[in-house]
Amino acid sequence: MKAVFIAYNQALTEAVNCILERYQIRGYTKWVDVQGSGTNTGEPHFGTHTWPAMNSAILAIMEEEQVEPLLERLKRLDAKAEQQGLRAFVWNIEGMI
With 90 as the cut, is the pLDDT of residue 40 above it? Predict the structure, then answer.
Protein backbone atom coordinates (compact mmCIF):
# COMPACT_ATOMS: atom_id res chain seq x y z
CA MET A 1 0.00 0.00 0.00
CA LYS A 2 1.03 3.58 -0.67
CA ALA A 3 0.03 6.99 0.66
CA VAL A 4 -0.18 9.90 -1.75
CA PHE A 5 -0.34 13.41 -0.29
CA ILE A 6 -1.74 15.95 -2.76
CA ALA A 7 -1.61 19.70 -2.02
CA TYR A 8 -3.33 21.96 -4.53
CA ASN A 9 -4.89 25.37 -5.07
CA GLN A 10 -8.60 25.25 -4.23
CA ALA A 11 -9.31 26.43 -7.78
CA LEU A 12 -8.36 22.88 -8.87
CA THR A 13 -10.79 21.13 -6.49
CA GLU A 14 -13.26 19.94 -9.13
CA ALA A 15 -10.48 18.63 -11.39
CA VAL A 16 -8.74 16.80 -8.53
CA ASN A 17 -12.05 15.28 -7.38
CA CYS A 18 -12.72 14.06 -10.94
CA ILE A 19 -9.27 12.48 -11.15
CA LEU A 20 -9.76 10.62 -7.85
CA GLU A 21 -13.13 9.37 -9.07
CA ARG A 22 -11.77 8.35 -12.48
CA TYR A 23 -9.00 6.27 -10.91
CA GLN A 24 -11.36 4.90 -8.25
CA ILE A 25 -9.37 6.33 -5.34
CA ARG A 26 -11.88 6.08 -2.51
CA GLY A 27 -9.80 5.89 0.66
CA TYR A 28 -8.74 9.44 1.42
CA THR A 29 -8.92 12.30 3.89
CA LYS A 30 -9.30 15.90 2.70
CA TRP A 31 -8.36 19.15 4.41
CA VAL A 32 -9.71 22.48 3.15
CA ASP A 33 -8.34 25.98 3.79
CA VAL A 34 -4.73 24.81 3.98
CA GLN A 35 -2.08 27.51 3.89
CA GLY A 36 1.30 27.13 2.20
CA SER A 37 3.89 28.39 -0.21
CA GLY A 38 5.51 26.78 -3.24
CA THR A 39 9.12 25.66 -3.09
CA ASN A 40 10.57 27.64 -5.99
CA THR A 41 8.23 29.83 -7.98
CA GLY A 42 4.84 29.44 -6.34
CA GLU A 43 3.09 32.34 -4.69
CA PRO A 44 2.00 31.96 -1.07
CA HIS A 45 -1.55 30.77 -0.45
CA PHE A 46 -2.36 32.31 2.93
CA GLY A 47 -5.98 33.46 2.61
CA THR A 48 -4.96 37.04 3.42
CA HIS A 49 -5.58 40.33 1.67
CA THR A 50 -2.08 40.20 0.17
CA TRP A 51 -2.11 36.47 -0.64
CA PRO A 52 -5.82 35.55 -0.93
CA ALA A 53 -5.57 32.08 -2.50
CA MET A 54 -5.98 28.98 -0.35
CA ASN A 55 -5.02 25.34 -0.79
CA SER A 56 -6.67 22.05 -0.04
CA ALA A 57 -4.87 18.80 0.69
CA ILE A 58 -5.70 15.11 0.35
CA LEU A 59 -4.03 12.07 1.87
CA ALA A 60 -5.07 9.04 -0.18
CA ILE A 61 -4.23 5.41 0.56
CA MET A 62 -4.11 3.08 -2.43
CA GLU A 63 -2.65 0.00 -4.02
CA GLU A 64 0.85 0.47 -5.44
CA GLU A 65 -0.29 -0.07 -9.04
CA GLN A 66 -2.67 2.90 -8.76
CA VAL A 67 0.08 5.38 -7.91
CA GLU A 68 1.82 5.95 -11.27
CA PRO A 69 -1.36 6.49 -13.32
CA LEU A 70 -2.60 8.91 -10.66
CA LEU A 71 0.69 10.83 -10.59
CA GLU A 72 0.82 11.06 -14.38
CA ARG A 73 -2.70 12.49 -14.52
CA LEU A 74 -1.98 14.97 -11.71
CA LYS A 75 1.21 16.00 -13.51
CA ARG A 76 -0.80 16.79 -16.65
CA LEU A 77 -3.27 18.84 -14.63
CA ASP A 78 -0.43 20.78 -13.01
CA ALA A 79 1.14 21.47 -16.41
CA LYS A 80 -2.17 22.90 -17.68
CA ALA A 81 -2.59 25.16 -14.64
CA GLU A 82 0.99 25.67 -13.47
CA GLN A 83 0.29 29.03 -11.79
CA GLN A 84 -2.39 27.44 -9.59
CA GLY A 85 -0.01 25.04 -7.87
CA LEU A 86 -0.28 21.29 -7.33
CA ARG A 87 2.17 18.89 -5.72
CA ALA A 88 1.95 15.18 -4.89
CA PHE A 89 4.22 13.09 -2.65
CA VAL A 90 4.27 9.31 -2.13
CA TRP A 91 5.03 7.34 1.04
CA ASN A 92 5.13 3.64 1.83
CA ILE A 93 2.48 2.40 4.24
CA GLU A 94 4.18 0.23 6.84
CA GLY A 95 0.98 -1.04 8.43
CA MET A 96 -2.66 -0.23 8.97
CA ILE A 97 -5.77 -1.42 10.77
Answer: no
